[in-house]
Amino acid sequence: MATEVRVPTLGESVSEATVATWFKQPGDAVAVDEMLCELETDKVTVEVPSPVSGILDEIVAKEGETVGVNALLAQVAEEGKAGAEEPRPRKTADQDTIVAGGGEESKMVDVMVPALGESVSEATVATWFKKEGEAVAQDEMLCELETDKVSVEVPAPAAGVMGKILVGEGETVAAGSKLAEISAGASAAASAPAPAAKEEAAPAQSEAPRKDVEDAPSAKKAMADAGIGRDQVQGTGRDGRVMKDDVARAVAAASASTTKTSAPAPAPRAAVPADDAAREERVKMTRLRQTIARRLKDAQNTAAMLTTYNEVDMKAIMDLRNEYKGVFEKKHGVKLGFMSFFVKACCHALAEVPEVNAEIDGTDVVYKNYVHMGVAVGTPQGLVVPVVRDADQMGFAAIEKKIAELGARARDGKLSMAEMQGGSFTISNGGVYGSLMSSPILNPPQSGILGMHKIQERPMVVGGQIVIRPMMYLALSYDHRVVDGKGAVTFLVRVKEALEDPRRLLMDL
């Protein structure tokens, strides 16, 4: 008996979708809730799980076809009851036993994309650390995935030999999809010949361009409506297939280029001298870098961003730190830095000026009765902002420990999605790179970000006398839609006062 797999409800006002990718083929074993295929609509991507365990018996709607709600996609037969016309045995990839060349028994184990975090549905395969035919140990890192926010390492689920790699570097994969197979229990010597044969055949295959890639029907219609040719659109679907979103991007790019009439058009790339072109290097932006670029530009386009400045005399903090840093480290096992003072000072100021800790949600202003402090960290992959949750409830030692832990995890690319979500205010320290003054960009949807800068000795007038003081410029960028100028200036003054006289933090002044 076969169980039908049908198109699920696609959402309000959405009546059809395009079959983008089949993760399983007829004859493959499937588990209940295992992803069978992915559908694309005008608004979202929808994954279709298997309703039962068994064998994928028939695919009715092929990749690239448009299907309506409740249309039949495929049929799944219970194990042992598949159609008799398919004599080949069905084997579950993670259970069936095979015999390696040396007579040893092994079983195929699937390598799947792990959970990528809340609101993250896909990732890009950045690097494969293993090749087909190489031996792997259990929990050894096989590949690294890049999402919009973090890098995710995929460990080997079992020891054995790397089998077929299904997704190459640079390709996009959905959460829960299959990346590769491992021949568990096999030895590299027994399994190496097959990958070698594949490698020899690869050049011949790559020489012949693919001619059977069928663009999504919705994309064809969109190209016809927009009056643009296939050569004007860069396909991002499987095997270069053009999807509807690709057409929308191409139309938007063409529209933007035609509106730039106020200034002379830049010289085309072809005009670059040959000797200069030979010394250039073109590198595709990582997903993280693309997300950083998009979010920062969105912040500029959306928020009414304004920056106010002040300066702080760091002598009191430096004296206090020098006096107690040895005792502090001995007791708490962590060094006393400047960040804990700034976090405490900001928490103190946010309590007095709560709108700096708020955000806009539609026509509402959401005031946060807590402080989840984002601390911007520069990494080799780009800027990330891990969050110290409930920083207003933490002491100096707890803050220093948490910042040190998050900073190390950020630089190693080990941050989880949860550790970078939910921040209500951010501190960015450009001073570690030597910045004397800058205007930080908001981290949306937050309404405020404090920029720290380089500590520099300058002549200051104190008590009618000119003295040399270690000074730092502070910058508060804020969303003027939520925060008035008075509130922003008051916030920055309170931070300055708390830093110049840390006793105020202890006395809540």
TrEMBL record:
Matches recorded under Gene3D superfamilies: 2.40.50.100, Chloramphenicol acetyltransferase-like domain, E3-binding domain
EC number, as in UniProt: 2.3.1.61
Cellular compartments per GO CC: cytosol; oxoglutarate dehydrogenase complex
Residue span of region Disordered: 191-241, 253-279
Alphabetic keyword roster: Acyltransferase, Lipoyl, Transferase, Tricarboxylic acid cycle
Catalytic activity: N(6)-[(R)-dihydrolipoyl]-L-lysyl-[protein] + succinyl-CoA = N(6)-[(R)-S(8)-succinyldihydrolipoyl]-L-lysyl-[protein] + CoA
Pfam families: 2-oxoacid_dh, Biotin_lipoyl, E3_binding
Annotated Lipoyl-binding domain residues: 2-77, 108-183
Family indicated by similarity: Belongs to the 2-oxoacid dehydrogenase family.
Function summary: E2 component of the 2-oxoglutarate dehydrogenase (OGDH) complex which catalyzes the second step in the conversion of 2-oxoglutarate to succinyl-CoA and CO(2).
Subunit structure, interactors included: Forms a 24-polypeptide structural core with octahedral symmetry. Part of the 2-oxoglutarate dehydrogenase (OGDH) complex composed of E1 (2-oxoglutarate dehydrogenase), E2 (dihydrolipoamide succinyltransferase) and E3 (dihydrolipoamide dehydrogenase); the complex contains multiple copies of the three enzymatic components (E1, E2 and E3).
Name of the molecule in the record: Dihydrolipoyllysine-residue succinyltransferase component of 2-oxoglutarate dehydrogenase complex
Organism: Allgaiera indica
